[in-house]
Design a protein that fits this description.
By secondary structure, the protein is α/β, with parallel strands linked by helices. The protein has 21 helices and 13 strands. 40% of the residues are buried.
Amino acid sequence: MASAKIFISYKRNVEPDHSLAGRVCDALRQQGHDVFIDRTLTVGQVWAAEIEKNVRGCDFLIVFLTAASSESTMVKGEVEMARDQAAKNAGTTRILPVRVAYAGPLPYPLNAWLDPLQYALWQGEADTAQLIEELSAAVTGTSLAQPAIQLGPASQRNGAPLYSAPLPPPGGALDVDDPWYIQRDSDLAASKLTSQQGITLVIKGSRQMGKSSLLVRTLQSAIDRGKRCAFIDFQMLGQETLRNSSAFFRRFAESVADQLDLERDVARFWDAGLSDSQNCTRYVEKQILQPFDSPFVLAIDEADILFQSEFLNDFFGMLRSWHNVRANPLKKKTWKKLDLVLVTSTEPYLFIDRDHESPFNVGEVLALSDFTPTQVAKLNTLHGAPLFQPDVDRLYNLVNGQPYLTRKAFYVVKSGLTPKQLFDSACEDGGPFGDHLRYYFLRLLSHPELAAALKQVVLGGGCPDPRLAERLKGAGLAKSESGKIVPRCSLYAQYFCERL
């Protein structure tokens, strides 16, 4: 039997995740496999480097899925890294999902990544031996006389994952009817824009700022006004598609048609003598816009993913041309039906050198802001006022109103953590913000120049390199204050000062 390199992804210090992961690890090691599980690592760069090295070097990533782990930023990051590695090496890394006494919906994007895969289902201690046997068989490529209980990729799911599906707080997009949603000025501006026709809207903000929640509400507002809508997330198109221009443009056109329940019929509009962007433009004009009187909203999430592709200028130049053609009297009637909504967390000018070909510097740009002290106080009230006002003020000073961290704080306090425990453990890897902080730290290891720049920032030296400063701000790790680059919030300053 050949030995395999295995990485176990799970939510630490939560049961039954923790215990089951340990038993599976021990059993697979006894069978001669090289199994990595993060229980003996020390805090600091060695820890984060080991995580990345072992995820990228594994043959199999076993991910234990529970209500707790599916909300873990670190689990998401490990799965994302394994998918990326598999794409780079022609699928050599396989992901083996295990649902641990949990059959609920996974949050986006885990549902998009994992729902197509075959699950193993563990419902209690009686299933442990059989689960180990099935995982061993999957690793070694052998067959079982009696397979363990399975959730097939479609047998127990209610359709494809929806971008607007309600997600448990505090991570992911909030449903349009979520009672804890806090409206900001950007919500009112986006809603007002949907009443117009032929708009271009750019929603910009760093990670976990609420961009997806705002996008969902913007689309709902457009639907309420009778507009047809298509939502395209570049994460759903697959790594291979994102590396091939022809495949990407065709898949993009097909995805739009699918969302509108139209016949794809892409081949009929594709001319080998034209460029991919010209063909895609013809398709949208002839198949999506001309045959219908109703306006159409094309929303693109995770636009940043395409910034590293070789054809980014072709695609974004095409979108810019769609914006411009609305003023052409020969085309105006058709193209004024089109609204463009683009979501990005990175400054596009860092990647798109030709400003006149960028769709991100035209139309309306909505930059999402952190919660204000008043909004944090309102969120406290909506949660039943678990914090007294001095602690509300202390929370604001700690995270500076960062939406995800603020929601996470109220969530864990409502779940039983005392305010003292919240603040005492805020900067610890095992604390309430640990997953969020470790995710950033792990990503910084892949970008040593950013890590060095952030170290200088947290030590009070600012960031003299304007390009690195913009990347730190785009990542949500830093901000401009009185003409100087400073840490985004006190929590980041404390955590990264200790580790960098």
